[in-house]
Design goal:
single chain; alpha/beta; Rossmann fold; Dihydrodipicolinate Reductase, domain 2; 12 helices; 15 strands; about 30% helix
Length: about 400
Amino acid sequence: MLLGLNWRQDNKKSRHMTQTRPATGTAPQGTHRVALIGCGFVADLYMRSFAKHPEVQIVAVYDRNSNRLAAFSAHWSLPACDTLEALFATAPDLILNLTNPMSHADITRTCLLAGHHVFSEKPMVLDMEEARALHELARDKGLYLGSAPSSVLGEAAQTLAKALRDGIAGPPRLIYAELDDGFIPQAPVEGWISASGAPWPFVDEFRIGCTLEHAGYYLSWLIACFGSVEKVVTATAETIPDKRGVTACAPDFSVATLHFAAGPVARLTCSIAAPHDHRLRVVGDKGVLELDKAWDNAAPVRFRKRLRIRRRLLESPMGKRLRLRGPTHPKVSREGAAAMNFALGPVEMLEAIAADRPSRIAGDYALHLTEVTLACQTEGVHRMTTACPPMEPMPWAR
């Protein structure tokens, strides 16, 4: 996950500052009880976001690395548990699985078997059979199993979805989605340190691959807007053979063509080689809906009307910004590459659990998102075996 980076070199001074940095504040004390499993790099981004949600109380944290657990719990003034059983005993309303993706399936299964609802960082699992088994386990036990990313519930994604529902650009025909992050193997990755001192796990990132780590950002938006994907045609490559000496790396470049049951076709590109580009463009009969920043909840969404001027056809050079009426959700300030509220997904699940209603990001949606994501990582033609309807808009985006 290439997010929230401090861009700080790991020299002696920065290491000392990181390890001795005092806690920045105590956990929010709210009515919803949340426990975190995994205190690595991404957990700090969740904590920054939960600070914007006083309705949430972090009741327990756990990490199998005792040093990492101690540093994280001290930094955020949180109660640490030395076993999963101790964490379960705190009676959380929701458990966040923020562990390494290779541990997602085992941790989620353990939590479900213990009777707890789970929100998992992406990808939910690395194997589709595991995904089906966990989906069925959650269903059979009457539990919620949801998946990141939360940005699908953010202002930018919801603004785009409303524009599509309102037909502003006409019927959507073709979508271009870019998730290129620059030539990352040459970046100073050893010096990327989170707020509580966790290093960015570049070895795991290179081995899991940028597609599984990042495709979900735009896949979640598109599935929310259009519903089920029927077919995925994927091509992949490893274009950079030497990534800091890390072996057994996943493809660092992928191109997936997504055929939606509702009609539109999308091309999604992921790489850690091409220059940074996070554009999303939806081509319709009347023009183009577009935005430039996948990792900014407040990214402007614009409409460029298609014009015929004499014998020329072009999109207006002056895009009209589209806005929702009224307040949306709490915003989180930019930290490195991201300005995303990571708590939006867990909070939506907590509200759904409390109201005994389906969660937007759990159930069939989470399973379908996982299947499509895995298809984008694997070369070939893939017929999807799961499905879900378009996502219900957030109340403030209707």
